[in-house]
Specification:
Blueprint: H1 2-9, H2 26-38, H3 50-56, H4 62-71, H5 77-88, H6 101-109
Helix pairs in contact: 1-3, 3-4, 4-5
Length: 115
């Protein structure tokens, strides 16, 4: 999604025939375009919308950029920025020292809520 959004923001519209150094599978491009359309970043013609241009300015996954931009409307930007930051680093927020692996894993489980 990020690459497709970036290319669209640079004015490259024909992604199927774009000369990628390492081209992604056709299905991956189609899914990325569908996701961007569902997020409102592309219109029905596959052109970048005003929202899509704003999303392209943020160096995060399109779903996170939409979430960040929408948070302003709901007056929760501070909380959403914290959530987006945590989501963008995956599990890198948890540090497991080799000599305290069991202790670190137990501490991490305190964040787990059974469904």
């Amino acid at each position: 999604g990020n690459v497709v959004l970036l290319l669209k923001s640079l004015g490259i519209n024909d992604l199927i025939h774009f000369d990628f150094m390492d081209p992604p599978p056709h299905e991956t491009l189609v899914l990325a375009l569908e996701q961007l359309y569902a997020l409102g970043a592309l219109n029905h013609l596959g052109e970048l919308t005003k929202l899509g241009r704003k999303m392209a300015e943020l160096p995060v996954d399109p779903m996170l950029s939409k979430m960040i931009l929408a948070s302003e409307q709901y007056k929760c930007s501070e909380q959403i920025l914290t959530i987006a930051a945590m989501l963008s680093v995956n599990n890198a927020i948890f540090y497991r020292p080799k000599d305290k692996v069991v202790h670190a894993d137990n501490a991490r489980m305190n964040f787990f809520l059974p469904g």
